[in-house]
Amino acid sequence: MNRSKVLALPSIVIDDQGWADKAVRMPSPNFDQRADGVPIDLLVVHNISLPPGEFGGPYISDLFLNRLDYEAHPYFDQLRPLKVSAHFLIRRDGEIIQFVSARDRAWHAGVSVFCGKERCNDFSIGIEMEGTDDQPFEPRQYEALVALTLALRGAYPLRNVTGHAYIAPGRKTDPGPFFDWQRYQLEYRLAAGNRQEGGIMSDDLQFCGM
Are strands 31-33 and 104-106 parallel, antiparallel or unpaired? Predict the structure, then answer.
């Protein structure tokens, strides 16, 4: 673990309206309001690539913004009925794009259950990692994910982090076997500890995807 690398993480601030100051803002229409009194206590990690296995290009954003050109690739035809979104997308180079305020309910989890609680969209924040089930993710993506997790942890009562496959077993497989949960957890703990000037921190945020 390169300590100086962790210390160089960007400091992200989530404002009172649920938007991250270091993220590119691309508001999606695919959201609704959360129910009153429901704490935002779960972070869900996904992966996505469009077309599958290809990175870069506008297609993920276009899908979340309801402007995907379905004729641009044969795979896109099956996506016509979808109205989906995530709160955040982390590109291969670490760029963060935000589509939905963290205060609102993005449509990312679908039919899902976490610890007996159904409808995970109601109480979760969804982060898409640009990637696939069969390729490693980039170091800059982990750096951005850790920085974003720290910011969201400071703004909301997050208690758990998990993957889409964990809350929708048999239906979803992401973020997949190449997502390094141990790296994510260790880098998060170290970064949180460094901000407290105490090294690796014993934080009560639980990582449930490993």
Answer: antiparallel
